[in-house]
Amino acid sequence: MVNDQIKLSVMKNICALQQSGHRVVVVHGGGPFINSILSKVKIESEFIGGHRKTTREAMKYIEMTLVGEVNTGLVTLLNHLGQRAVGLSGKDGGMATAIKRFHKDGDTSIDLGQVGNIESIDPTILFDLMDKGYVPVVACVAPDKNGGTFNINADMMAGAVAGAVGADDYCVLTDVDGLMMDKDDFSSLINELKYDELAPLFDKVIVGGMIPKVESCQIALDQGAHSARIINGTKENSLLDALIAKKQTGTIISK
Q1: Which tens digits make up the pLDDT trace of 150-166?
Q2: pTM value surpassing 0.85
Q3: Same domain for 89 and 182?
Protein backbone atom coordinates (compact mmCIF):
# COMPACT_ATOMS: atom_id res chain seq x y z
CA MET A 1 0.00 0.00 0.00
CA VAL A 2 2.88 2.41 0.70
CA ASN A 3 4.93 1.36 -2.32
CA ASP A 4 3.35 2.87 -5.42
CA GLN A 5 5.01 0.39 -7.80
CA ILE A 6 3.76 -2.64 -5.85
CA LYS A 7 0.30 -1.09 -5.51
CA LEU A 8 0.18 -0.53 -9.28
CA SER A 9 1.27 -4.12 -9.91
CA VAL A 10 -1.45 -5.53 -7.63
CA MET A 11 -4.14 -3.34 -9.19
CA LYS A 12 -3.03 -4.48 -12.67
CA ASN A 13 -3.44 -8.08 -11.48
CA ILE A 14 -6.93 -7.28 -10.25
CA CYS A 15 -7.80 -5.76 -13.62
CA ALA A 16 -6.49 -8.88 -15.38
CA LEU A 17 -8.57 -11.11 -13.11
CA GLN A 18 -11.67 -9.05 -13.86
CA GLN A 19 -10.97 -9.15 -17.59
CA SER A 20 -10.53 -12.95 -17.49
CA GLY A 21 -14.03 -13.41 -16.10
CA HIS A 22 -13.41 -13.43 -12.36
CA ARG A 23 -15.61 -11.21 -10.21
CA VAL A 24 -13.37 -9.40 -7.75
CA VAL A 25 -14.03 -7.62 -4.46
CA VAL A 26 -11.15 -5.67 -2.89
CA VAL A 27 -11.09 -5.08 0.89
CA HIS A 28 -8.32 -2.88 2.30
CA GLY A 29 -6.97 -1.31 5.45
CA GLY A 30 -4.44 1.49 5.69
CA GLY A 31 -2.40 1.34 8.88
CA PRO A 32 0.60 3.41 7.71
CA PHE A 33 -1.68 6.17 6.41
CA ILE A 34 -3.59 6.20 9.71
CA ASN A 35 -0.31 6.42 11.63
CA SER A 36 0.65 9.43 9.53
CA ILE A 37 -2.57 11.41 10.01
CA LEU A 38 -2.80 10.68 13.75
CA SER A 39 0.80 11.80 14.16
CA LYS A 40 0.06 15.05 12.32
CA VAL A 41 -2.92 15.84 14.55
CA LYS A 42 -0.94 14.75 17.65
CA ILE A 43 -3.15 11.82 18.65
CA GLU A 44 -1.06 9.04 20.14
CA SER A 45 -1.68 5.45 19.03
CA GLU A 46 -1.83 2.70 21.62
CA PHE A 47 -2.02 -0.93 20.50
CA ILE A 48 -3.58 -3.58 22.72
CA GLY A 49 -3.60 -7.18 21.49
CA GLY A 50 -2.72 -5.98 17.99
CA HIS A 51 -5.66 -3.56 17.81
CA ARG A 52 -5.38 0.22 17.80
CA LYS A 53 -7.22 1.69 20.77
CA THR A 54 -9.49 4.21 19.08
CA THR A 55 -11.10 7.25 20.68
CA ARG A 56 -14.06 8.96 19.03
CA GLU A 57 -11.75 11.80 18.04
CA ALA A 58 -9.25 9.39 16.47
CA MET A 59 -12.07 7.57 14.67
CA LYS A 60 -12.95 10.73 12.73
CA TYR A 61 -9.43 10.90 11.31
CA ILE A 62 -9.26 7.14 10.71
CA GLU A 63 -12.48 7.19 8.69
CA MET A 64 -11.32 10.28 6.82
CA THR A 65 -8.10 8.50 5.89
CA LEU A 66 -9.49 5.06 5.01
CA VAL A 67 -12.47 6.31 3.02
CA GLY A 68 -11.27 9.69 1.79
CA GLU A 69 -7.65 8.91 0.98
CA VAL A 70 -6.85 5.20 0.68
CA ASN A 71 -10.15 4.04 -0.79
CA THR A 72 -10.49 6.85 -3.32
CA GLY A 73 -6.86 6.37 -4.32
CA LEU A 74 -7.39 2.69 -5.13
CA VAL A 75 -10.65 3.41 -6.96
CA THR A 76 -8.99 6.14 -9.03
CA LEU A 77 -6.12 3.82 -9.92
CA LEU A 78 -8.41 0.95 -10.98
CA ASN A 79 -10.53 3.29 -13.08
CA HIS A 80 -7.39 4.72 -14.67
CA LEU A 81 -6.33 1.16 -15.57
CA GLY A 82 -9.59 0.61 -17.45
CA GLN A 83 -11.86 -1.01 -14.88
CA ARG A 84 -15.03 0.40 -13.36
CA ALA A 85 -14.38 0.51 -9.63
CA VAL A 86 -16.71 1.79 -6.90
CA GLY A 87 -15.55 2.81 -3.44
CA LEU A 88 -17.50 1.67 -0.40
CA SER A 89 -17.22 1.22 3.33
CA GLY A 90 -19.23 -1.07 5.54
CA LYS A 91 -21.67 1.82 5.97
CA ASP A 92 -22.80 1.78 2.34
CA GLY A 93 -25.96 -0.05 1.37
CA GLY A 94 -26.28 -1.56 4.84
CA MET A 95 -23.38 -3.84 3.97
CA ALA A 96 -21.88 -4.38 7.42
CA THR A 97 -22.96 -4.28 11.05
CA ALA A 98 -20.33 -4.05 13.77
CA ILE A 99 -20.32 -4.81 17.47
CA LYS A 100 -17.94 -3.24 19.96
CA ARG A 101 -14.78 -5.27 20.59
CA PHE A 102 -13.23 -5.75 24.01
CA HIS A 103 -9.74 -7.16 24.49
CA LYS A 104 -9.63 -10.05 26.93
CA ASP A 105 -6.56 -10.30 29.15
CA GLY A 106 -7.21 -13.22 31.46
CA ASP A 107 -10.25 -12.22 33.51
CA THR A 108 -9.84 -8.57 32.55
CA SER A 109 -11.85 -6.96 29.74
CA ILE A 110 -10.19 -3.90 28.18
CA ASP A 111 -12.25 -1.25 26.38
CA LEU A 112 -10.67 -0.49 22.97
CA GLY A 113 -12.97 2.44 22.21
CA GLN A 114 -14.30 2.58 18.66
CA VAL A 115 -12.85 -0.80 17.66
CA GLY A 116 -15.36 -3.35 16.44
CA ASN A 117 -15.90 -6.86 15.20
CA ILE A 118 -18.11 -7.65 12.24
CA GLU A 119 -21.44 -8.99 13.43
CA SER A 120 -22.98 -9.47 10.00
CA ILE A 121 -22.46 -8.74 6.29
CA ASP A 122 -25.27 -8.16 3.81
CA PRO A 123 -23.58 -8.66 0.41
CA THR A 124 -26.52 -7.36 -1.67
CA ILE A 125 -24.77 -4.17 -2.79
CA LEU A 126 -21.62 -6.15 -3.65
CA PHE A 127 -23.54 -8.56 -5.88
CA ASP A 128 -25.44 -5.67 -7.49
CA LEU A 129 -22.17 -3.98 -8.40
CA MET A 130 -20.46 -7.17 -9.58
CA ASP A 131 -23.47 -8.10 -11.69
CA LYS A 132 -23.03 -4.79 -13.52
CA GLY A 133 -19.30 -5.31 -14.06
CA TYR A 134 -17.99 -3.05 -11.28
CA VAL A 135 -15.13 -3.84 -8.89
CA PRO A 136 -16.25 -3.01 -5.33
CA VAL A 137 -13.43 -1.56 -3.19
CA VAL A 138 -14.32 -1.74 0.51
CA ALA A 139 -12.76 0.24 3.38
CA CYS A 140 -12.79 -1.40 6.81
CA VAL A 141 -15.16 0.98 8.61
CA ALA A 142 -18.59 -0.18 9.78
CA PRO A 143 -21.53 1.08 11.88
CA ASP A 144 -23.18 -0.67 14.81
CA LYS A 145 -26.94 -0.98 15.18
CA ASN A 146 -27.05 2.40 16.94
CA GLY A 147 -25.26 4.22 14.13
CA GLY A 148 -21.88 4.48 15.85
CA THR A 149 -18.76 4.21 13.69
CA PHE A 150 -16.17 1.49 14.31
CA ASN A 151 -12.67 0.75 13.10
CA ILE A 152 -12.51 -2.89 11.93
CA ASN A 153 -9.36 -4.94 11.50
CA ALA A 154 -8.98 -5.18 7.70
CA ASP A 155 -8.17 -8.91 7.75
CA MET A 156 -11.27 -9.66 9.83
CA MET A 157 -13.52 -7.58 7.58
CA ALA A 158 -12.07 -9.13 4.43
CA GLY A 159 -12.69 -12.64 5.78
CA ALA A 160 -16.29 -11.78 6.64
CA VAL A 161 -16.89 -10.27 3.19
CA ALA A 162 -15.31 -13.31 1.47
CA GLY A 163 -17.58 -15.61 3.45
CA ALA A 164 -20.70 -13.54 2.76
CA VAL A 165 -20.17 -13.56 -1.02
CA GLY A 166 -19.22 -17.26 -1.01
CA ALA A 167 -15.88 -16.50 -2.64
CA ASP A 168 -14.31 -19.27 -4.68
CA ASP A 169 -10.93 -17.87 -3.63
CA TYR A 170 -10.20 -15.64 -0.67
CA CYS A 171 -6.70 -14.20 -1.10
CA VAL A 172 -4.88 -12.45 1.73
CA LEU A 173 -2.04 -10.33 0.39
CA THR A 174 0.94 -9.84 2.70
CA ASP A 175 4.70 -9.29 2.38
CA VAL A 176 5.89 -12.88 2.91
CA ASP A 177 5.38 -15.96 0.74
CA GLY A 178 2.80 -17.51 3.06
CA LEU A 179 2.73 -19.36 6.35
CA MET A 180 6.15 -20.72 7.33
CA MET A 181 6.76 -23.65 9.67
CA ASP A 182 9.64 -21.46 10.89
CA LYS A 183 8.94 -17.77 10.32
CA ASP A 184 12.66 -17.08 9.93
CA ASP A 185 13.22 -19.85 7.36
CA PHE A 186 11.72 -18.95 3.99
CA SER A 187 12.30 -22.50 2.76
CA SER A 188 9.82 -23.81 5.36
CA LEU A 189 6.77 -22.52 3.46
CA ILE A 190 3.65 -24.59 4.11
CA ASN A 191 1.96 -25.12 0.73
CA GLU A 192 -1.37 -26.53 1.90
CA LEU A 193 -3.23 -26.92 5.16
CA LYS A 194 -6.59 -28.31 6.14
CA TYR A 195 -8.77 -26.12 8.33
CA ASP A 196 -8.64 -28.67 11.17
CA GLU A 197 -4.83 -28.55 11.16
CA LEU A 198 -4.71 -24.85 12.08
CA ALA A 199 -5.63 -24.87 15.78
CA PRO A 200 -2.47 -26.62 17.09
CA LEU A 201 -0.26 -24.20 15.12
CA PHE A 202 -1.35 -21.03 16.93
CA ASP A 203 1.35 -19.49 19.16
CA LYS A 204 3.93 -21.89 17.72
CA VAL A 205 3.84 -21.51 13.94
CA ILE A 206 1.07 -18.94 13.54
CA VAL A 207 2.49 -15.94 15.40
CA GLY A 208 2.59 -12.13 15.26
CA GLY A 209 0.99 -10.50 12.24
CA MET A 210 0.15 -13.89 10.74
CA ILE A 211 -2.43 -14.54 13.49
CA PRO A 212 -5.15 -12.16 12.17
CA LYS A 213 -4.48 -13.30 8.60
CA VAL A 214 -5.03 -16.96 9.43
CA GLU A 215 -8.00 -16.07 11.63
CA SER A 216 -9.51 -14.18 8.71
CA CYS A 217 -9.12 -17.30 6.57
CA GLN A 218 -10.97 -19.27 9.24
CA ILE A 219 -13.77 -16.68 9.25
CA ALA A 220 -14.01 -16.79 5.45
CA LEU A 221 -14.19 -20.60 5.35
CA ASP A 222 -16.61 -20.77 8.27
CA GLN A 223 -18.97 -18.31 6.62
CA GLY A 224 -19.05 -19.62 3.06
CA ALA A 225 -15.80 -19.12 1.13
CA HIS A 226 -14.59 -22.22 -0.72
CA SER A 227 -10.86 -21.78 -0.22
CA ALA A 228 -8.43 -19.31 1.29
CA ARG A 229 -4.81 -18.56 0.59
CA ILE A 230 -2.09 -16.30 1.94
CA ILE A 231 0.02 -14.80 -0.85
CA ASN A 232 3.02 -12.51 -1.14
CA GLY A 233 1.50 -9.42 -2.75
CA THR A 234 4.90 -7.78 -3.18
CA LYS A 235 5.84 -10.36 -5.84
CA GLU A 236 4.79 -9.40 -9.34
CA ASN A 237 1.82 -11.32 -10.75
CA SER A 238 1.37 -13.42 -7.61
CA LEU A 239 -2.43 -13.19 -7.91
CA LEU A 240 -2.35 -14.21 -11.56
CA ASP A 241 0.03 -17.09 -10.80
CA ALA A 242 -2.34 -18.34 -8.12
CA LEU A 243 -5.71 -17.87 -9.80
CA ILE A 244 -5.10 -18.01 -13.55
CA ALA A 245 -1.85 -19.92 -14.08
CA LYS A 246 -2.84 -22.24 -11.16
CA LYS A 247 0.73 -22.32 -9.90
CA GLN A 248 1.56 -23.39 -6.38
CA THR A 249 1.60 -19.97 -4.76
CA GLY A 250 1.43 -19.11 -1.09
CA THR A 251 -0.35 -21.20 1.52
CA ILE A 252 -3.73 -22.68 0.59
CA ILE A 253 -6.20 -23.41 3.42
CA SER A 254 -9.28 -25.50 2.76
CA LYS A 255 -11.89 -27.47 4.69
Answers
A1: 999 999 999 999 999 99
A2: yes
A3: no
